[in-house]
Amino acid sequence: MTEKSPKLRAALDGIPTYKPGKPAAAGGPRAFKLSSNENPYPPLAGVLETAADAAASLNRYPDLACTELIAELAGRFDVPLEHLATGTGSVGVAQQLVQSTAGPGDEVIYAWRSFEAYPIITQIAGATSVRVPLTDAEEHDLEAMADAITDRTRLIFVCNPNNPTSTVVRRAELERFLDRVPSDVLVVLDEAYIEFIRDERVPNGIDLYRDRPNVCVLRTFSKAYGLAGLRVGFAIAHEPVAAALRKTAVPFGVSQLAQDAAVASLRSETALRERVDALVTERARVWEALVAQGWTVPDSRANFVWLRLGERTADFAAACEAAGVVVRPFPGEGVRVTVGEREANEIFLRAAEEFRKEL
After folding, report:
1. What burial class does residue 6 get, using C-beta atoms within 10 Å of its C-beta: 0-12 exposed, 13-18 middle, 19+ buried?
2. Cis bond leading into 164, ω under 30°?
3. How far is CA 24 from CA 29, 30, 175, 325, 326, in A?
4. Are strands 233-236 and 215-220 parallel, antiparallel or unpaired?
5. Which of 197, 260, 287, 303 is 20 to 30 A from residue 219's alpha carbon, by CA?
6. Bridge-partner residues for 112, per DSSP?
């Protein structure tokens, strides 16, 4: 009898693979990883101790409902408990959102280039991606995104600030866009980097969600809070959407270490602001240096900068790695470079300056 392979869903054929930032090489001279938008600082004071205490109970399942974390978030953002849902990082919650709204024959709209997980989680659900090109300024083209809505549209992602281009959508244009979106289409404001924004024209998505039942806000503890390795994110949405997210969540997906560390981080707001302010100051220094070198760089509102390099992308990434920093290349398009510790940023800036001389 001829053996056959197990039948798998055709929707998985050709699915793109998520590409994490390349790690710094081990065993050689010190190299810095600026490829994953990680926070260069360790967890906030007291967080490691809290996580260590939680580790003593690794033989037990975590709190399925994330009770303490949900209560802390509800108080912090002044939202009902029922409007909160957690998941394994904001990307985990994003996948739950797609699973809750879209399937075969449905469409998910997002800007492109934007967060590379969007096409992956859309295809896993069997839905169809509708990619709307960014403007020449590397920003969301919200008018074109609104024009792309059809009766098959179920979900729209707006990544603000946008990963990997670091640009933002401002309040007036976002409100105009939301006014054009049908009330039965869910709009997800992906605000993974919101803590780094210093532009008063950029809205806090939670303000917009309050009177718009079709708006969901996505947040994470991976970036500003420095808990990337613990995988905890959350969504704020009206009850029907939040309830759907709880239904589609992997049971016990958020570990007790992650829950307790997130709560401790939320209670260290002053220290968080200080370190984020330091990163924002360093971001400005890096941006100004690149502009002085002659690069065209979007004015970053995240913890990274974007260089559109086209066919020189791979060469630039290789030059940076040879110099001692690993950046994130998007072949044929450009590189995203995390704002890291000052020493790493200095190496990157020197590599960028040398590469610029060769253009």
Report:
1. exposed
2. yes
3. 10, 8, 41, 7, 6
4. antiparallel
5. 287
6. 133
Q: HEC states along 62-83?
A: CCCCCHHHHHHHHHHHCCCHHH
Instruction: Collect all residues with Cβ–Cβ distance below 8 Å to 348 and sequence separation of at least 6.
Output: 34, 286, 320, 323, 325, 327, 337
Query: How big is the CA angle at 84 (ends 109 and 87), to the nearest 5 degrees?
Result: 70
Print pLDDT tens along the chain (359 aa).
677 778 778 777 877 776 776 776 655 556 899 999 999 999 998 999 999 999 999 999 999 999 999 999 999 999 999 999 999 999 999 999 999 999 999 999 999 999 999 999 999 999 999 999 999 999 999 999 999 999 999 999 999 999 999 999 999 999 999 999 999 999 999 999 999 999 999 999 999 999 999 999 999 999 999 999 999 999 999 999 999 999 999 999 999 999 999 999 999 999 999 999 999 999 999 999 999 999 999 999 999 999 999 999 999 999 999 999 999 999 999 999 999 999 999 999 999 999 999 87
| Residue reference for tokens 């509102």 | 301
Q: Which helix (H) or strand (E) covers residue 350, if one does?
A: helix 342-358
Phi–psi pair at 16, nearest 5 degrees: -70, 150
Distance CA 133, CA 57 (A): 48
**Residue 186 β-bridge partners:** 155
Residue whose token pair is 């992906």? 190
Residue bearing tokens 């040879």: 322
